[in-house]
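Sequence dictates fold. Below is an illustrative record:

_____
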Amino acid sequence: MTSKKNSFWRLCFSFLPGAGEMYMGFMKMGVSIMSLFMAVFFIATALEFGALMIVGLVIWFYSFFHVHNLASLPDEEFYSIEDDYIFHFTDPSSVGKEFYENNRRILAWVLIVLGVATTWHGILNLIYVYLPDWLYQSISHITYDLPKVVVGIAIIVLGAAMIRGKKKEIHFMEQEEEEQDGEQ
């Protein structure tokens, strides 16, 4: 059951992404936000890519203000809010299925890369006593910086794809306007 509950505890729980929503009874929202924050934190830590924590900071601010915005709603509006997951990976509805189908490959590649990186570090830790020190240091140095390079390249490619997509959208809209002007 959702309720606004004690404002002191709501404030305390709002400092942990998702916990404030869960405290007020919005379990699905809270779990979604907390999972997203923890996933970003884990990936940033595992890849030693601190810049990714900017996304974590945005999630933190969203969660903090979301809790207080929910609490400030009039009672009838507050109680009419439906508790729902932010992402619908397993939702059989068309929205959830479409999201999953569109992002399945990306998720699969992320999992594969994380699995390979974790396995590689585990193997390297197991065999380091058998390798000459200079070879271990060289391999360790490369594997320390390689994930950062890969993530940096992926960010550049993603940004370029977004720009290209926006240019195509603008070009398409300009063509439609020209066609409409030509018809008049």
About this structure: The mean pLDDT is 81. The two ends are 58 Å apart (CA to CA). Residues 110 and 149 are 15 Å apart (CA to CA). The chain has seven helices and no strands.
